[in-house]
TrEMBL record:
GO terms for molecular function: D-ribulose-phosphate 3-epimerase activity; metal ion binding. InterPro entries: Aldolase_TIM (IPR013785), Ribul_P_3_epim (IPR026019), Ribul_P_3_epim-like (IPR000056), RibuloseP-bd_barrel (IPR011060). Belongs to the ribulose-phosphate 3-epimerase family. This is Ribulose-phosphate 3-epimerase. Pfam families: Ribul_P_3_epim. Gene3D superfamilies: Aldolase class I. GO terms for cellular component: cytoplasm. Its EC number is 5.1.3.1. It catalyses: D-ribulose 5-phosphate = D-xylulose 5-phosphate. Catalyzes the reversible epimerization of D-ribulose 5-phosphate to D-xylulose 5-phosphate.
Length: 213
């Protein structure tokens, strides 16, 4: 299991130190939540701050867009060379076109599904995707309760992935901790995002290792 700490729960007063600490603690990716105050009722960081995050990071960035105007934000973040950019299917009218655009920029495309969105919605996009992110909370905030129906959803998605594109990874984001990590692993999940569980712990390295099962 790969682990991507969400910096939403980090101390932004000392973000450089926080980024260095999670990298040294052995994280696999750094999850950057981008919110526009329209698609979700919260706002986070833009490219200026993410640039300093990228500078301090020794692990690849995983940018999670929670915005209405996806194309605008893809153009804004592409120069920072993240490994992944993920966008919500609920906010995009032309997901296939946007996937091709992200690929052309040399970035791995991923699609995010809110808790109510069924996996069949993206069946015919799977062959072009490097990752699908299943939300296990409503997007917008860290520290929320895990919505356990995501486990069954991951199992269904795994079946579609096996049929359409076995290289596509499954990521789960929201309320992940050392209690639910085993059922996620059993369901076929490859990558988990963890914000409050990692940044709220006494030892980032112990918390990260407890999820790398
Ligand atoms: C929620 C974000 C998550 C969030 C996860 O909108 O996408 O990445 O930071 O935080 P926890 O792990 O605390 O649920
Ligand atoms: Zn996220």
């Amino acid at each position: 299991m790969l682990v991507a700490p969400s910096i939403l729960s980090a101390n932004f007063g000392k973000i450089d130190e926080e980024i260095k600490a999670i990298c040294e603690a052995g994280c696999d990716l750094i999850h950057v939540d981008v919110m526009d105050g329209h698609f979700v009722p919260n706002m986070t960081i833009g490219p200026v701050v993410v640039k300093s995050v990228a500078k301090a990071a020794t692990k690849p960035l995983d940018v999670h867009l929670m915005v209405e105007n996806n194309t605008f934000f893809v153009d804004l973040f592409a120069p920072l060379k993240p490994e992944y950019i993920s966008f919500h299917i609920e906010s995009e009218k032309h997901p296939h076109r946007l996937i091709q655009k992200i690929k052309a920029l040399g970035i791995k495309p991923a699609i995010v599904l809110n808790p109510h969105t069924t996996v069949e919605t993206i069946e015919y996009l799977l062959e072009d995707l490097d990752m699908v992110l299943l939300m296990s909370v409503n997007p917008g905030f860290g520290g929320q309760k895990f919505i356990s129906s995501v486990v069954e959803k991951a199992q269904k998605l795994k079946e579609l992935i096996n049929k359409r594109n076995p290289n596509c990874l499954i990521q789960v984001d929201g309320g992940v901790n050392d209690k639910n990590i085993h059922e996620l692993k059993d369901a076929g999940v490859d990558v988990v995002v963890a914000g409050s569980y990692v940044f709220g712990s006494n030892s980032y390295s112990k918390a990260i290792k407890s999820l790398q099962i």
